[in-house]
Design brief:
mainly alpha, 329 residues, 0% strand
C-alpha cells in the first residue's frame, strides 16, 4: 500500500545516484579534510596532526665568500710614501752614525791619538812614532794580507841582521871581505826603516782608506823591493849580501859557508814571498775600484790642499809681484 501513497510524479530514487545511502553518509560526515591528516603522528595513538614541529637548525653554517677589494690609488700612494719616508729615516740614521764616528775620529786626532808603534817601554826616551791597529783600521777582508806584509817586513829585518853577522864572520875569516861587512851594515840601517816607510805604511794606508795613490806608490816601491830581494839572494860579491854566490865562494870555511847558505835561503824566501804577496795585493786592488785617474786626483788634491804647498805658492806669488812692482819703478 505504500506504493500507492507515494507521489507518482516524483523522480524515482533509484534514478539519482547521489541518493545512495553510502554516498550520503560520506558526504554528510564530520571527518576532517585529508590534507589536515598527519600520517606521522607524534604519538602512535594520535591519528590527526595537531601541530607541526619545526626542524632543528643545522650546527654548520654555509661558507660565505668575502668580496675581494682592490686597494685604491690613494692607498697605494700612501703606502709608497710611507715606505719612502721609512727609507729616508734609515738613511738619515746611518748618515748621523757616520758623522758621529767621523767626529769621534777627528776628536781623537785633535786630542792626539796615542801612537803604539814601535812598542817601546814608557820609560824609554824615544816614544812610538806610528799608530797601528789592524782590527780598527783595516777592513776584515784585507787584514790577513796586511798582516802578512807586516810579517814580511819583520822577516826582512831579521834576514838583514843575520846577513850582517854572516858578513862579519866572513870578514873575520878573510880580511879582504871588509867591503861586504861595511855594506851589510849600510843595508841594515837603510833598508829596515825605508822598507817600513816606503812600502809597508803605504799598503797599510791603502787598505785603511782605499787610497788609489797609496796603492800605486806601493806597487812602484815594492816592485823595486822585489828586485832587491832577488839581488840579495843571488849574492853578488862585494855587494854586501850573503847570497848563493858568496856562500859557495866561502865554503873553504864550513862554519862561515853554512851561515851564508842559511842567509841565502832566507833571502830567497823573502823574494818568493814578496812575489806572492805582490800578486795578492794586485788582485785585491782590482776589486777595490781604484784607478790611475783616481790616484792623480788624490795626488793633486793632496798637493793643492797642503799648507806647505800653499805657503810656498803664496811666497812665490808675492815674490813675483814684488819683482814686477820694482821693475816698473
Amino acid at each position: 500500500m505504500s506504493s500507492y501513497d507515494s507521489n507518482p510524479f516524483a523522480e524515482p530514487t533509484s534514478d539519482n545516484p547521489f541518493n545512495d545511502p553510502s554516498v550520503t553518509q560520506v558526504t554528510n560526515s564530520n571527518t576532517e579534510a585529508v590534507d589536515q591528516y598527519n600520517p606521522f603522528p607524534a604519538h602512535p595513538t594520535d591519528g590527526l596532526a595537531t601541530h607541526t614541529t619545526p626542524a632543528a637548525p643545522s650546527p654548520y653554517q654555509p661558507a660565505v665568500l668575502q668580496p675581494s677589494t682592490e686597494p685604491s690609488p690613494q692607498a697605494t700612494a700612501a703606502a709608497a710614501q710611507a715606505n719612502l719616508l721609512r727609507q729616508q729615516e734609515e738613511l738619515e740614521r746611518k748618515a748621523s752614525e757616520l758623522d758621529r764616528r767621523e767626529q769621534e775620529l777627528q776628536a781623537r786626532g785633535s786630542t792626539g791619538k796615542e801612537n803604539n808603534w814601535p812598542p817601546l817601554p814608557k820609560s824609554f826616551p824615544i816614544k812610538p812614532c806610528f799608530y797601528q791597529d789592524f782590527s780598527e783600521d783595516i777592513p776584515p777582508e784585507y787584514q790577513r794580507v796586511c798582516k802578512m806584509m807586516y810579517y814580511l817586513w819583520m822577516f826582512n829585518c831579521v834576514t838583514l841582521f843575520l846577513n850582517l853577522l854572516a858578513c862579519l864572520a866572513a870578514f873575520i875569516n878573510d880580511s879582504k871581505l871588509g867591503v861586504d861587512f861595511g855594506l851589510s851594515i849600510l843595508w841594515l840601517i837603510l833598508f829596515a826603516p825605508c822598507s817600513f816607510l816606503c812600502w809597508y805604511r803605504p799598503i797599510y794606508k791603502a787598505f785603511k782608506t782605499d787610497s788609489s795613490f797609496s796603492f800605486f806608490f806601493f806597487f812602484f816601491v815594492f816592485f823595486c823591493q822585489v828586485v832587491v830581494f832577488i839581488i840579495q839572494s843571488v849574492g853578488i860579491p862585494n855587494w854586501g849580501n850573503s847570497g848563493w854566490i858568496t856562500a859557495f865562494t866561502n865554503l873553504n870555511n864550513k862554519s862561515v859557508g853554512a851561515i851564508m847558505i842559511i842567509v841565502a835561503i832566507l833571502f830567497t824566501i823573502c823574494a818568493v814571498l814578496s812575489v806572492i804577496l805582490l800578486k795578492m795585493v794586485h788582485k785585491m786592488y782590482r776589486r777595490t775600484g781604484a784607478s790611475f785617474h783616481k790616484a792623480q786626483q788624490e795626488f793633486s788634491q793632496g798637493v793643492f790642499t797642503s799648507k806647505t804647498f800653499q805657503s810656498a805658492a803664496a811666497g812665490a806669488a808675492s815674490s813675483a809681484a814684488q819683482g814686477t812692482f820694482q821693475g816698473n819703478n
